[in-house]
Amino acid sequence: MALLTDVFLPLVIILLIFWYWYRSQKNKKYYQNVATPPTVPILGNALDFTTTTELLGTFMRYRKDYGGLVKVHIGPLRHFLLVSDYKMLEYLLSSPKIVDKSEDYKFLSSWLGTGLLLADGGPKWKKHRKILTPAFHFQILEQFVDVFDSCSNVLIQKLDKEVGNTSVDVYPFVTLFTLDVICESTMGTKINAQDDVTSDYVQSVKHMCRIIIERSISPVQMYDFLFVFTRNYFIQRRALRILHDKADGVISQRLRELQAQTKTDSEGDSEGIKKKKAFLDLILEAKVDGKPLSQDDIRQEVETFMFAGHDTTASAISFTLYCLANYPEVQKMAYEEQLSIFEDNNEPDVTYANLQSMKYLELVIKETLRLYPSVPIIGRQSGEDFQFDNSWIPKGDTMLLFLYGIHRDPKYFKDPEVFDPNRFENPDNKMPYSYIPFSAGPRNCIGQKFAMLEMKCVLSKILRKFELQPAVPQHNLLLTAETVLKSANGIKIGIKLRK
Ligand code: HEM
């Protein structure tokens, strides 16, 4: 006993003090000149973020009070660097080396595996990015206009039933529309989410999107070993089985069809009809190092497109409708542009050429994405220590790139809180990293052209059919930074039939 108290305990204390001293000496070179908001013991800055609706406001305050680089502590073990400094954003996004996603994306991995969005920036990501890029060539995108158009028609029917309602939350309608679009374009199969909202598939997508967010802020669910004891774990397990089975089923069926088609073609019995290709077909045809992708790799890319391509566009379309409703002058100009393109206002179908000529609508979407970027924050980490200005940033530390923050910086946007699509009329490209709704650099959004066409198509059809009005009673958005930007109290507008 005496040995324990006289020798062992003091030794442990000395070692701990030495370890603490050594760590603080070693860490001295890190984060120099980077401010930290005042912390409380153990919790650090955690009390500033108790809900996802506080996040953007707190980050904006940090930015205003402490500048473009802020070190934030969450509890005793976690910290991150909040980045909205122009030069640092440019450095990080253009770097061919800092291409790894941060830890925060891990809750998505049971669904998306190592598909493009989550993959570290190693050789696999590079090869997959290279073979998937041609899938977004305009000749391929052109084929999807029919899909955008027919899914928009279903949405119009749904909104038609809301005519006269002065306070419609458009987000639930739009998110089912974008799910229909992405499913048909990616897998080449219809899920009819807009007509069958209770289907297992639609519900599973919804559960997964919800659970990912709940896990990222819950001190219990964020740890895998505790998560397995929660109800969400069992819901997630079932949802993943449904989602994976669906994707696997579609992939196997397409493979069989392709094999049968090759056989018929080689027997000279082809009817000569060129079937529209879904993204899946292009992935099935692609070769990496001379070999086709494995079934797992294919499924992960398909599910990545499903995830990355539906909630993002739903957020952008819904906020654009909100802005059009609340800025009647802007809506008038957007509507007049539609009239100039479709002389007969009842013209039902939209073509690729029509979409190309919707220049003003594009400005409206761009300005909406400035104020309401679908992805308000993205996370990165570096594989090695690096120096920026006079500060060293350690390898593996999370850096949160605050896109929402730089989009509202008066240094780059005059009167940043004002919604003014004309500010993009003659863009000067001198500061390209101040406007990055689709990110930038090697890991930018692969689907941005697809998204722009889809958004223009559906907005064009809605604008021609309905007059959008500010909601009554007045609706103030309560922005919440989940995986995508949403409004916690809905995105509400009034809908009136155009005469
Ligand atoms: C308004 C719509 C959209 C917005 C604002 C948007 C925004 C973004 C952003 C900011 C990133 C970077 C994420 C990060 O670094 O963590 C990203 C990546 C990505 N997006 Fe989009 N996106 C949209 C639509 C789409 C669509 C329609 C698709 C697919 C059809 C898509 C597929 C992807 C993929 C696969 C990545 C990962 C790329 C990589 O890391 O190589 N996105 N998107």
Automatic annotation (TrEMBL):
The protein's name in its UniProt record: Cytochrome P450-like protein
Topology of the protein relative to the lipid bilayer: Peripheral membrane protein
Pfam families, per database record: p450 (PF00067)
PROSITE patterns: CYTOCHROME_P450 (PS00086)
GO cellular component: endoplasmic reticulum membrane
Organism of provenance: Tribolium castaneum (Red flour beetle)
Gene3D superfamilies from the UniProt entry: Cytochrome P450
Residue intervals passing through the bilayer: 6-22
Subcellular location: Endoplasmic reticulum membrane; Microsome membrane
CDD domains, per database record: CYP4
Keywords from the named record: Endoplasmic reticulum, Heme, Iron, Membrane, Metal-binding, Microsome, Monooxygenase, Oxidoreductase, Transmembrane, Transmembrane helix
